[in-house]
Amino acid sequence: MNERNTLLAVENLRTSYRTTHGTARAVDNVSFNIDAGEILGIVGESGCGKTATALSVLRLIDPPGRIEAGSHLWFEGHDLLTLDEEAIRQVRGRRIAMVFQEPMTALNPVFTVGDQVAEVVRVHTSATRREAWARAVAMLDRVGIPEPAIRARSYPHQLSGGLRQRVLIAMALVMRPALLIADEPTTALDVTIQAQILELLQELQREMGMAVMLITHDLGVVAEVAQRVIVMYAGQVVEEAGVQDLFSSPRHPYTRGLLRAMPRARRAAERLQTIPGTVPSPTAWPAGCRFRDRCADAFEPCGNPPDLFDLGGGHRARCFLTQVTAATAPTEPSMPSRI
Amino acid sequence: MADVTPASVAAFADYAPPVTSLPPAQPATLWKTLRRDRTFRSALAVLGVIVGAAIFAPLLAPYDPAAQFDLTTRLQAPSAAHWFGTDPVTRDVLSRVVFGARISLTIAFLAVALSLTIGTVVGAAAGFVGGSFDAFVARSIDALLSIPRVLLLLSVLSLWGELSTRALVVLIGTTGWFGVARLVRGEVAALRQRDFVTASRALGARGMRVLVRHVVPHLASPILVAATLGVGHMIVVEAGLSFLGFGVPQPDASWGSIIRDGREFMQTAWWLTAFPGLALVLTVLAVNVVSDRLRAALSPRQLPAP
Amino acid sequence: MTGNQSAADPPPLLEVRNLVKHFPVHTGLLGRKTAVVRAVDGVSFAISAGETLGVVGESGCGKTTLGRAILRLIEPTSGEILVEGADFRAVRGKKLRAMRRHLQIVFQDPFSSLNPRMTIGDAVREGIVIHRLAEGAEADRRVRHLLEEVGLHGEIANRYPHEFSGGQRQRIGIARALAVQPQFIVCDEPVSALDVSVQAQVVNLLLDLQRDRRLAYLFISHDLRVVEQVATRVAVMYLGRVVELATADALYREPLMPYSQALLSAIPVPDPVTRRERIVLSGDVPSPANPPTGCHFHPRCHHPGRDAACARISPPLEEKAPGHWVACIKQPPTTVPWDVQLQHGATNPPSRYLPDLTAIRA
Fold first, then answer.
1. Which of A178, A237, B122, B255 sits at a 20 to 30 Å CA gap from A47?
2. Each residue of A39-60: pLDDT tens digit?
3. Residue B26 lies in a domain
4. Containing domain of residue B140, as a range?
5. CB-side exposure of C340: number of CA atoms within 13 Å?
6. Which residues of A touch C272 (CB under 8 A)?
7. What is the pTM of this model?
8. Range from A316-325, B238-247, C121-130 carrying the lowest mean pLDDT
9. Which candidate in A203, A214, A229, A274 is best for mutational testing of the C interface (most C CBs within 10 A)?
10. Interface predicted TM-score of the whole assembly (ipTM), two decimals
């Protein structure tokens, strides 16, 4: 990588929640960077900590959750965790914006969608009501809402799911943020609408040059959109790589399992490969490698917690197997062929 | 049945179920939650004292509530002999309030039981049968709810004149079920949409089985909350009627009628109205707190998503 | 099977003919019927034992209603449902409940599909009790066996649903359906709510059970990748109608209906190297209360031959190749003659349109 222009550096992020069953460390020592203008995919299954990571970046963790001391979120020269309420409010929506999964609940049902986009402008600028409205309509036009001047006067329930998601994107991007966090932005949508929204996101990202943190459980979405990918499991980053690298030579057994578990072309009525067992509970992460109990290749060293080993070329994986040569490994780590 | 064991069994052998939601409110867990709640405990204590007083009234009351002494003890302020003072006909106010608790609470409990029964049956029937029957019942309930309760009660009472205590219970009970019916109807209609109810139908269950096994058990919580809230409400309604002179016949006296008896002496003998009034307010307050806390404890909660 | 037709083929396990479900829309104070939503609008197909018919389509296409209407959990408006040749719509009361044994359902939402106040054992036992299949210790044994068959411990029977994860609950829901030894199961998005790795476990379980018990599935899903994995044949639905019905092989290799083409091209491919042409449809799915005239898909269609006739002629589902049924008057061959199309304002004769989707699967 030449001349990386790091926009956000997450350092040792730990976010925990107090529950009736003990403290759940949803995000456990997560570190990664996002460069300006890149699309970073964060993949993982429910409970892996990907959403908590996103909310932490915006400091939207409410009690009983908290971000633990020792965490750092470097963004545009500041540690977001040291900013006061007013300063973080200035970052939210203006420099870092977020798009949520469920477009219906993320919009306020009693205001028109135009008002809601204009409100963002008015919060962050001294624009008059009229100017803010004009910017809102222009942004709604930009995100592909037909007849934006008329649709701006609609209420959220009058729009389809796809259009509501476009409104949310307009709200997020109207201040031209440097970083957009998109948390499962297409999961609630139909596949043809998902295609439209992904297309739109990529187009806007190129045009505005913003960075995107795309959180999803869908490896297909990641493969299409992301440039670099982080795989999370049980609150930790288990693998990080460029998107082609990750799909062609995944190094962590969990990543390999996920890729193999995906239903793929033309194997009708054939059994899928699965990852046995279930994700451990966040109130009691297993000691050592957290994937060990579900891993077919686990061997003796896995009783200790593995580091996120650097494998060169920006590829990192949290697995001892990456540190052993094929000759000494207990079993040949099975590499899936190119999909 | 197939003897082949799917390979996935082995894969699944040692599962560790992650806790995704709290259990449905079982009585034991419910009590565990509520026991830690101080406000709930104090409210329950207040209710305990009042209900205890009502049950053991003959043992606790220092005098016969109807007993009249010589006229020198008329309208006495609270003293060591008469803690709550005496009334114009020399009766002991404390004893009257203690016995009044019996009347007030009995009427309230019975009326609530009656209104809950009618409301649950009507609401469950409407919600479960659905269709035009449901639409008819729903409209009727809305219409009935729009009539002011006091107006309804007073117009019926003015037709009958003085009523026995039993008739009063029936009257209050039969005019108090509309809200319960609406609540239950909503719950049942929502439950009917749940997949486990559809699954039971798909298995070939009769309507009655679905109702009994899959719908009714879920009504316990809302009905419990409605019941506690209803008790407070019924006490107030009964007190209001008694205060207006339509209440329990003499010589029985509920808190409402005691207050009515003392209303002319409000300026000179405050204890005649203050003590029964206090008993009334405390009871209703305690009942409402219990209801509120029960509702909070019964409502399903999720652990924060990690 | 029934064995009453020795010479002819036995009737299929399940046959649906011209099934219709319309929901009236009531508005206003008096609740007058002002419109109908044509959720299922004349659907026909047959399924035989051991076969999986996949049903795909986007939200609002009627696939869930179709599943429920076949089981008469929602009473169909019209049409026929034949179970081994017997008229399922004619039975009532006791007979209907008895017949339900053969047709079961597995739901999407693992948190709504189990009664939270009933133990796992009671849930699985319910069907056994209703149909008096076993009693006492024998029933206990069956429940344990069923739980083991779906990959759970037999001892969990005394526990409540909240103690289990989504995937485990789906297994319990499957065990409940299996308890009455059905021949046919409607799987209504059975893995959509699950994580990828758990999804694969449940899909495998369904495939194993199908093999062991010769079950027939109607597998409803919006996820075309999962359907490709499990289905022998696939029906594509759009606004209440089946617009394409073919073997999974044929459909995924060469979709003929322009809507199916767009749907398939929209699936994100889990491979960053392969790129392909994507047909991005404009606009949203229209409301099923007010579908476009003629071919419901015509306003969004990208077939180069689309013309005025598409808006006027309701395209029949016709066999374009052996076993490959498509509703499109512009994909030849068609049973709607050219002069009829001309009368309806056609300007473009039918011509085969096959966008290059094969690159996807290279």
1. A178
2. 999 999 888 899 899 999 999 8
3. no
4. 50-56+80-301
5. 12
6. 223-224, 243-244, 247
7. 0.83
8. B238-247
9. A274
10. 0.84
